[in-house]
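Onboarding guide, step 5: your first structure request.
Type a short instruction followed by the sequence, for example:

Predict the 3D structure of this protein.
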Amino acid sequence: MEIIQKPSLLTKQILNPETSRQPRYYTPVVLNVFTILSALAASFFYRQLLDEKSGIALLFASVTVFLMLTLYNAMLAKDGAKRFLLLVAQGISLAAFFYDQPLNIVALAVIATIAFFTLGTLRGRRVLNNNLTIRFLRIGRVTLASAVSGLVLAIIILYVPRVGSQGMFISRDIFQLFFESGARFTRNLYPGIDLGGPIGSVARQIAELQAKNDASFARLSGAEQEAVLEKASDELVGRMGETLKLALTGEERASDVFYNGIALFTANAGETLKQQLFIGSIILAYLVLRAAAVGFYWIVLMIAWGVYQLLIATNIFHIASESRSQEVLEY
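The system replies with structure tokens like these:
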């Protein structure tokens, strides 16, 4: 009688190997996928904003998520080659919806993004490796500071093809946005002057401010004061028109008057001066946006820290100790 031997459990495992994945195996894959998707979303909403099809809130939301995921990847990914490949994919994704722009512009934006993001990741990893405990806020600060610099530079580079034929780097709508902020600041310093109205109204307010402490003006009758103010405001509008070489009626918005004056000056400037003004505008735009971004990346860092604490509490991320008695963050 033939005896049939059942294969042992060990024999089954050798003959029929089964690959089983731990749940944590998929965590970095999911994190990488969501990072790329958030970069694509940021690219899409920036393009929509430039095409005036969506507001800035969606861009801020997508960039916030993207920067948070970038920070987590910088802390979690230990393989330098994989980190760099992910950064390259992020840079390409951030410019994905600008495929119809000049290739040199898109390539420059991608290179700038990759360079600054790589710098931020290296700085963050250095802080992580040089401390026994995970100092999340310090790691996040150095990582996001470089990442935001790269994003601001990419935003400006991708905007360059939209500069008008007059060489004005800032569009009328964006200039209006900054002008309104300046008008609010001026209104706080000089409550009687509102730069947000027509230029004729602004001239009238300046004339009233000048006449306020004039004793001879105070002795005039109401009709005479009105005539003096009317004449002074008309003269001020006329002098402004001569200075800016514009025909003004007094009904134009003050922001439009200043924008048209700058545009006319730029258009009439020589090629050398025009290039210098253009380069100066780019540098100024970078400095202004980078300064404004400081508050933004601190907000992102605080949100990222709160989410990080939640991920630690739910054991999606966990802190482990290596043999060198240093805390590391793992999936």
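Each response can be followed by summary notes, for example: Residues 172-268 form one domain.
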